[in-house]
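dumping this here so i dont lose it
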């Protein structure tokens, strides 16, 4: 395991942070599980031989699971929490949040700048284009691109 200079880890959570063998966390990454002590976050689990480049942000209140042998470019962001906002008569900040979590399968390639939103599930063997914004379930061996992201091809 290798955690590079400038990275921040906040592991206060129900399940902690679990990093498999040969995991690389690049420079200036942030692994933040709990944003508020009133509601402890779930945690982060990253499988063996997985590598995240510089400036990755893990907002893991709802939990983040990343499989084995995943490679990732710079500036990737995980947001495993989302604010509710449907009621116009209540302030957005008072409407609560969802915490469905994010799951990434094995053997995936995550391009630079990708954003994963709460509830996203990515199957094994997927390739995700740079700057895609993912917000739903994507089947294994998909090539995923766009804002919002969609399957554009199958491997």
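and the seq i came up w/
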């Amino acid at each position: 395991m290798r955690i590079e200079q400038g990275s921040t880890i906040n592991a206060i959570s129900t399940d902690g942070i679990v990093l498999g063998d040969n995991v690389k966390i690049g420079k200036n990454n942030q692994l933040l599980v709990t944003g508020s002590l009133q509601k402890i976050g779930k945690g982060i689990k990253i499988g063996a031989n997985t590598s995240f480049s510089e400036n990755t942000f893990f907002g893991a209140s709802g939990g983040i699971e990343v499989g084995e042998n995943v490679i990732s470019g710079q500036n990737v962001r995980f947001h495993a929490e989302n604010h509710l906002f449907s009621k116009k008569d209540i302030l957005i900040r008072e409407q609560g949040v969802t915490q469905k979590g994010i799951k990434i399968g094995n053997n995936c390639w995550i391009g630079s700048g990708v954003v994963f939103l709460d509830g996203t599930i990515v199957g094994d063997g997927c390739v995700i284009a740079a700057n895609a914004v993912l917000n739903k379930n994507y089947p294994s061996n998909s090539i995923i691109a766009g804002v919002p992201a969609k399957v554009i091809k199958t491997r």
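The longest strand covers residues 149-154.
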